[in-house]
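Entry details:
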Amino acid sequence: MSTTLRELFDQSVGFLSSRNLYYGHGVETAEDEVLLLLMFVLDMDYATFNTQPDYEVHPEQKLQAENLLRKRVEQRIPMAYVVGFSVFAGLRFKVDHRVLIPRSPFAELIDLGFNPWIGFETATTVLDLCTGSGCIGLAIAHYFEQAQVDVSDISSDALELAKTNKRLLGLGANVSVIESDLFAEISGQYDLIVSNPPYVDEEEFAALPDEYTYEPKQALVSDRSGMEIPVKILFEAPNHLSEQGFLFLEVGYNDEVLEDFFPDISFEWVHLSMGGQGICVFSREDLLKYNPLFKSFLQDNVT
């Protein structure tokens, strides 16, 4: 008996929904995960998937989908790792255990062109610090072709995957890949610095759902309640920003933790209409103004 795409989709959603799974690695629901799965198994893009509900699925494809669903459920592996890709800012990125699965609300800022803070007619140099898969910086390079984008990470393994994604997206000389421990090997000045660094506390990490154990701990965990690495970035960033430059730093649900450490700073948090939280924005001028506070924190808390 034949199975249509719509029938397989509904059956697969029902199978996942009946299990105690965690969704949050670039997806929010069982439906989102099944969409990724069937895009992979059927080699379809999103637009084609939505226009062919009566497509007749080959028995071998159905069997492959069922096997991958069991792998997802039995091993608690996030679906993006099961199928080897994730969608971020409308683009497809190869992912595996070397990098976090793309899920940053930076996608909404990219869609907005970082307005009203900057304009890419003048902001032509960009640094994506702690880039991982490269998703944020490479998406900026894709949509704003005039920008020169550097993507940087401490992990050579992650950067190998970022290079692969650069090639798959057809990006060329406008993107450079730099291995660096934060700003240690960064020499240029930038109109825009974006960063989604590690900001999870060690105890918080230990309590996360099983799905997180497949991601690289180094990309998630930071000392001092998760804030050591973010504060290092805040402290060092003005040395690498142009006169009118801006830093956008993501700390997610730990936004209140950062505010509690610095009660004398008036943080500007980006309003995100599409979900997510915890991206603060600083001009170079404000980073310099608050620099003594960041320095004091690091001197008192970091050996």
